[in-house]
Amino acid sequence: MNAEDHPRTGQTFVELENVTLTYGRGERQIVALGETNLRIDEGDFVALVGPSGCGKSTILKLVTGLITASTGYVYVAGREVGAAPVRVGMAFQNPTMLPWLTVRDNVMMPLKIVPPFRQEYQSKKKTEFRDRAEALLKEVGLGGFGDKHPWQLSGGMLQRASLCRALIHEPQLLMLDEPFGALDQFTREELWAVMQALWLKLKPTVILVTHDLKEAGYLATRICVMRSRPGQIIDDAPVPFARPRTIDMSYTPEFVSMTQRLRELIVAARPVKETV
Amino acid sequence: MEQGLRRRLWSAVFIVGFFVLWEALCWAFHISDIVLPKPSQIIVTLVTRMPALWPHTVQTLYTTLVGFALGILAGVALGVIIGSSRLAYDVAYPLLIGFASIPKVAVVPIFVLWFGSGAVPAILTAMIMSLFPIVVNVATGLATTEPELEDVMKALRATKLDILWNVGLPRTMPYFFASLKVAVTLAFVGTVISETVASNRGIGNVMMIASSNFDVPLVFAGLIILAIMGVALYAVFSLIEARITGWAHRKDEFAMG
Prior knowledge:
Largest interface: A-B, 23 and 21 residues
Structural class of chain A: alpha/beta
Distance between the termini of chain A: 27 Å
Number of helices of chain A: 8
Radius of gyration of chain B: 22 Å
CATH superfamily of the largest domain in chain A: P-loop containing nucleotide triphosphate hydrolases
CATH class of the largest domain in chain B: Mainly Alpha
Structural class of chain B: mainly alpha
CATH architecture of the largest domain in chain A: 3-Layer(aba) Sandwich
Strand content of chain A: 15-25%
Shape of chain B: globular
Order of helices and strands of chain B: HHHHHHHHHHH
Number of strands of chain A: 10
Oligomer: heterodimer
Largest sheet of chain A: 6 strands, mixed
Radius of gyration of chain A: 19 Å
Distance between the termini of chain B: 7 Å
Strand content of chain B: under 5%
CATH topology of the largest domain in chain B: MetI-like fold
CATH class of the largest domain in chain A: Alpha Beta
Number of domains of chain A: 2
Number of domains of chain B: 2
Largest sheet of chain B: none
Order of helices and strands of chain A: EEEHEEEHHHHEHEHEEH
Shape of chain A: globular
């Protein structure tokens, strides 16, 4: 199946058109991303899954404009990436909090940078913005931790704060690069619920890169499977389960058979076959 | 707290013990004052000659601090440039290392040639001595900013200046203050070198004249003054460091209890 096969409603928000990405030159050239076409609707939640090194994170970086495509075009909100004034939030596996700031100040950092909040930062940082950060922290279960410093928090709490930082400026586009990858199973499941609730409330367009098929099935409305060398999308399927989803749902036969299918696709797409 | 007190007590005992041992050895082996004066004698010299030594002390301190301040300004500016630009790094680093490996005594005559003898070459020598560690530390702090953090900022469309101001510089503070402690002692070295070679004021000059008169206790009195000033400034910058960059030292605090 290809991205083009799905008839979709809604406005296309992100579009990759014949995009490729190569590193290096001549014989040493590495194709990180083979020709890729991908369309993501506004307010959609797309998960990219696949073996390591298949270019999942490359797609995130292309869409945020952190790297430029070798060929092809990347459009965001109808304009070429970089030209569109789109607010982007990002969260990684590493929470990357600034250790010299309190958790609240860390969460408020995007407001200090991104217009139109930037212009109002000095006047509102002790009132409206502060309240907004506190409200968001409370929503992810960190109420009362705003004055702590990052080193006083556990990994799971830091990741919650990192999500707040990614969402405080109400981004239209949210990029999640294995944000729950380093957490234990129970914390991870808790954060899926938090993430789902935030997404249902704020409805940003989300691209989630993950290794965890259960995570992809729980959170995403659409799952794209990628293979490596060269990186390419080999499967693109909607996730039909109703919202809000629960952990129990991930043990239903339908869910299990979906993750099994995805797993087989990924195993078959692995460059080096290992006997399991 | 009990443990901290005991630690301090022991360190004080050993430091005093060092001078007592020195005194004892001088007595035991009948070491002449011209070779190695006794600590007691140095203290006596220090006290009796203080009226004469004081203006020189002030001169050396003043020269060092001015040179050090200039070193901080130039060092931070250079460090920021080198740490945030690949090209500047490639160009300036080899130059800087080459410059740092030149013995500063060799540079003083050039400064004297340009500016005449006196305070100016001493200030400049103090400045170039303190420059190197500051530049290296500031540049390292900036260059080692986590790439993911930069991605977060770039995705927010932060300008280079935004990133420098909000991430780069605060992150560099622990490196910067660590370098200041080293740099301030080097600034003293620079001042004294220059005063020794080309000045008629300052502790370096006093020591020079004293040694040519075989007034060894006075030479040692000069050394003690330099050491005290060095330790005092080191302590001042340690305190400032602990205040401003406490976030980077939380583990030490926990360890101390």
